[in-house]
Amino acid sequence: MDKIIIEGGQTRLSGEVKIEGAKNAVLPLLAATILPTEGKTLLRNVPILSDVFTMNNVVRGLNIQVDFDQAKNEILVDARGPILDEAPYEYVSQMRASIVVLGPILARQGHAKVSMPGGCTIGSRPIDLHLKGLELMGAEIHQEGGDITAKADKLKGATIYMDFPSVGATQNLMMAATLADGVTVIENAAREPEIVDLAILLNKMGADVKGAGTETLTITGVKELHGAEHDVVQDRIEAGTFMVAAAMTSGNVLIKDAIWEHNRPLLAKLMEMGVKATEEKGGIRIQANRDQLKPVTVKTLPHPGFPTDMQAQFTALMAVVKGESTMIETVFENRFQHLEEMRRMGLHLEILRETALIHGGQQLQGAPVMSTDLRASAALILTGMVAEGKTVVSKLNHLDRGYYQFHEKLKALGAKIERVSEDSHG
Ligand code: EPZ
């Protein structure tokens, strides 16, 4: 496994950076390609990430043809033939997000078997809301031997009130409802831009999904779906990660093709601190003088609240802003592990359950650190840019799940950063 070495200090990022298609959009979009029984589906602007390879294998495991043309960032899916209804454990166990194939397989086949996704370092990641919604639509759900089996000759439209606006559960139920008998109403649904992107593809396939982006979705079932073409929406979290990188290095960076509307909660917080954010025709420009930035309080919430996927990266910015900032993580129960690593770099902080008090502005020192999840990896690399001396970030498998050429992009903006194999003496 590789590691990343960063020479910190006075890095000031400048230039422009290209953003990829969204990981958290393309994974459910790939699950949706299971639904059409005629025509093929072409996804464009697909990011080259390990999670995409994993989801491609999950879909291939259903006897569906998946061709990933990496040179063109396109995936062509042909799901017309008879498909299998069991998602292979070897791939599902690699990535929790695979659970969103359950709804599409069940809707198309009347039977589905998917292994229970394991938890992960940021939380237990239950799927009770997924299963409760499918049961309300008439599915018979059993859990045995680590697998979930679901049966329903024909799913029926139902009104489902989500205890929590779960992104994955909303996606699973939305897809299942497209082929159900009658109308399904999902209340207190997730409102993330990736939910909207999925609804757009489903409607292109001939589904009838209304209300995506609001807290109430109305899906009227149809007989069958056909293939479609779709451009994956830009990755708002990758864009946000580079916005934070620019701010914490007193930089001046144009994040190309970033969508202001998708990043409003983050941009509001950055501007509250004193970061200059301007919408240009080519994207969003971020400029800052970090010595003049003010500490803030942030609470992560489902969209349109501040995204939990930006929490770790934002704590890195809080670490360089003089004064006491507060980060409250309300979505996942164990998503502060990167802060323990930043403590090793000299960051003063206290963690009181879901609240982290960060005493920013101290000069941080480079150190060997370990990443525990995808966004923590990015946060530690950003912190290495502003710490004095050398920082070595290991366990990059997490990073590669969600960031394409992350260190190359930072290097092109001026960071002193290298990626070497684990056993080299970097
Ligand atoms: C999606 O995960 C994202 N992943 C996550 O991004 C993101 O952090 C999360 O949404 C929240 O925005 C993908 O889209 C592939 P949830 P998901 O269901 O769908 C609880 C990243 O870094 N919950 O909205 O799993 C759950 O425990 C990843 O890119 C239940 O209680 O998120 C958690 O506390 C990390 N029961 C909260 O809801 C359920 O049935 C949010 O989970 C489902 C969820």
Question: What is the total tally of β strands?
Answer: 24
**What do the pLDDT scores average to?**
96
Give the count of structural domains: 2
- The CATH architecture assignment of the largest domain turns out to be Alpha-beta prism
Count of runs of 4 or more consecutive helical residues: 14
In CATH terms, the superfamily of the largest domain is: Enolpyruvate transferase domain
Rounded Rg? 22 Å
Based on Cα principal axes, name the global outline.
Answer: elongated
Portion in beta strands: 25-35%
Name of the top-level CATH class of the largest domain: Alpha Beta
Cofactors and ligands = ligand EPZ
* Helix/strand structural class: alpha/beta
In the CATH hierarchy, the third-tier topology of the largest domain is known as UDP-n-acetylglucosamine1-carboxyvinyl-transferase, Chain
Low-confidence segments, ≥5 residues, pLDDT <50?
none
GO molecular function: UDP-N-acetylglucosamine 1-carboxyvinyltransferase activity
Modified residues (2-(S-cysteinyl)pyruvic acid O-phosphothioketal): 120
InterPro entries: Enolpyruvate_Tfrase_dom (IPR001986), Enolpyruvate_Tfrase_sf (IPR036968), MurA_subfamily (IPR050068), RNA3'P_cycl/enolpyr_Trfase_a/b (IPR013792), UDP_GlcNAc_COvinyl_MurA (IPR005750)
Protein name: UDP-N-acetylglucosamine 1-carboxyvinyltransferase
